[in-house]
């Protein structure tokens, strides 16, 4: 079979969630947007619910509606994009909690679904989503009277503890929410690691659950194993792949692996990333193409049947660094063609 295998360790995800939850007193939620960062939202969310998570976050109402079918009626499902035009039926039917980000959304929510639970998203300096301080001051009396479920904001630089932006956003969040008498949330994974001042009532870890930085102590979660379709001998001076970008410097053996940029092994990995036979690295050679990638296996004693590109020897952040990106992008780019195998007690 030429289909590559992406193995997802649900016990490791649950252990990462518990470890992040244990860093403070706040309730730990779980961010499962973008199909749980590409790892399968239904299986991941079920495992996290079994571990004790009661509050989930998604980006879109459609994601929330699907998640509700998986999780049943009890957990809270918050929607970061708030209440968009066309979302009302999904929000009502799936009992989602939109995080309203502008006065216009507050009006839409009140008109379409009066009395339906909501939260409010505040901008504390990132300028991506959320009400500005002046907008919030004008609306707070009315919105607070309707008892929002959550007041939240998002940190722009939480993965860099030394940035003064973190304390500035914390100060702004406090100024806008102190005394409101409503549950508050500021910290994603990076914010949790900044310390308890940032935790408030509910945290929103995402990447840390899935084994990525900045949660350095995370258990590794994913293994991505690529079958070898063919191994060929390449004579010195011969080239490999599109554009002849790699020339064999010596008699070489090159394995052709069954995944490429259509599967999220981005073309920028060409000539920079490695795959592994156990702990032994094999450099990628030739351009990463749509469905295939070459690796130099000359130094391996046995011809490999498969080589791993994500494994204990190479985590998402190491691979990301080789490709000039971040672990988040490596995970969410993992394509739909992999056989996703969920393992662990909660699988
Ligand atoms: C994606 C996201 C999170 C989770 O962030 P991580 O860095 O993956 O932990 C939390 N809050 C908001 C608003 C987000 O968009």
Q: How would you summarize what this structure contains?
A:
By secondary structure, the protein is α/β, with parallel strands linked by helices. Helix content is 30%, strand content 22%.
Outline the structure in words.
The two termini are 23 Å apart. The protein has helices spanning 10-21, 33-38, 41-51, 61-71, 88-93, 103-112, 133-145, 164-177, 189-194, 316-323, 327-333, and strands at 5-9, 27-28, 30-31, 55-58, 76-79, 97-100, 119-121, 151-152, 184-185, 202-203, 222-234, 239-240, 246-247, 252-257, 274-277, 280-285, 293-296, 306-310, 339-343. The protein is 30% helix and 22% strand. It has 2 domains: 10-210, Alanine racemase (TIM Barrel), CATH 3.20.20; 222-343, Lyase, Ornithine Decarboxylase, Chain A, domain 1 (Beta Barrel), CATH 2.40.37. It has 11 helices and 19 strands. With 347 residues, the chain is of the alpha/beta class. Pyridoxal-5'-phosphate (PLP) is lined by residues 31, 33, 80, 154, 188-190, 204-208.
Main beta sheet: 8 strands, mixed
By DSSP, the count of extended strands is 19
Unreliable runs: none
CATH class of the largest domain: Alpha Beta
**By helix and strand content, what is the structural category?**
alpha/beta
H/E topology pattern? EHEEHHEHEHEHEHEHEHEEEEEEEEEHHE
Could you say how many structural domains there are in total?
A: 2
Key terms for this structure?
347 residues; seven-stranded parallel beta sheet; 11 helices; eight-stranded mixed beta sheet; 19 strands; 2 domains; elongated; 30% helix; Lyase, Ornithine Decarboxylase, Chain A, domain 1; binds pyridoxal-5'-phosphate; TIM Barrel; alpha/beta
